[in-house]
Specification:
single chain; alpha+beta; 39% helix; globular
């Protein structure tokens, strides 16, 4: 079995999605690229992750040709690979159906930068696309265009996609986005929430990724 470590990592991340209340049943997707081989590991379509093993993860190349695996890959593999083609620094994609972020996708409202934590991970609001079925000709391209240089996008009437250099980053963004959407929803029941300015969000992102923690100032 090739890419055993990455396959294990993809499955472990998929198993974390319901633990963070981001998906239920067989929902959600985790996809990651191996920088060395350029191969992509993705969760199979429509199967309960609790019953799967690392061997059940699918390996393809960047052209979606099957390299190894016995199941069909995620039906949206063309989109997941599209993100990594468009942004070569990205190596991971996480797709969830988390309720608060999905509510924004149903309302066709972007999630504003409402907390410093959201600013740290996104640096800008998270936009939303129109509804796209997987058979829509724009499905593999429009979400990438709408996301632009950001790190997440909401699929209209569907749910969020987050990306990152690593699986950990993509997962952290999925959790952070859901928490920000929840916080903003609660704040709107209290009053008129104050969001961070574009400059504040950008500066917070830059500080967190370049000078925060054990990084040298």
């Amino acid at each position: 079995m090739i890419l055993e470590e990455l396959r294990s990592h993809v499955l472990k991340t998929a198993l974390l999605l319901p633990k963070y209340n981001l998906v239920w049943m067989a929902g959600g997707t985790v996809c990651a690229r191996d920088p060395l081989t350029g191969y992509v590991v993705v969760t199979p379509s429509g199967l309960d992750y609790e019953r799967l093993t690392p061997e059940d993860m699918i390996v393809t190349d960047m052209e979606m040709n099957l390299v190894e695996g016995k199941y069909r890959p995620s039906v949206a593999l063309n989109l997941w690979i599209g993100f990594m083609r468009a942004r070569t620094e990205l190596n991971a994609v996480v797709h969830t159906h988390s309720p608060y972020a999905t509510a924004f996708s149903v309302a066709y409202q972007p999630v504003p930068v409402i907390t410093e934590t959201m600013a740290d991970w996104f640096g800008q609001p998270v936009p939303v696309t129109r509804y796209l079925s997987v058979e829509d000709p724009e499905f593999p391209t429009l979400p990438i265009e709408v996301m632009g240089d950001g790190y997440a996008v909401l699929l209209g009437n569907h749910g969020p996609i987050t990306v990152g250099k690593t699986i950990e980053h993509a997962l952290e963004r999925a959790v952070t986005l859901e928490e920000a959407a929840r916080t903003y929803s609660i704040a709107r029941t209290i009053g008129a929430p104050t969001t961070l300015t574009e400059e504040q969000a950008r500066d917070s992102f830059d500080y967190y990724h370049n000078r925060y923690g054990q990084k040298k100032s």
